[in-house]
Amino acid sequence: MDSVTQHNTQQAQRKAAMAVLAHAEAGEIAACLRTIPLPGHQDLREPENGLVMLRGRVGGDGAPFNLGEATVSRAAVRLASGEVGFGYTLGRNSEKARLIALCDALVQSRDFGAAVERDVIAPLREQLMVRRKQQAEETAATKVDFYTMVRGEG
Questions:
Q1: Rounded CA gap, 99 and 120, in Å?
Q2: Given this model, what pLDDT does residue 129 score?
């Protein structure tokens, strides 16, 4: 496998992991991480809270406008082996941002990538799918079907 293909595969794995971790609760991530032996790591960027501007587009030409601000938490973690992970999450949950950054670094590690996928990401993905299915069922139970009857002129 050439280096470009390997890089693209790793980026796809990171993206898929982040999609799951962003929707998980901090406690769920921490519980899953307890099942694997964690390597030495340090915070490159202490978890911190801040604001980001939300932008929208409107009209036929898609002119951008500032919709408002949202709070975010971010962190960066480096493993002893050198991999660096970044974590961002909406809201003021610094611990979740740090856990996401740790998972991001672990996913990039040759020694821990498979274990994190198997013991952290896969169970969280399964929980997420179960929650989404339950929500879809609850929503479907409230669905109302409307139909219109056309009357002919008689």
A1: 11
A2: 95
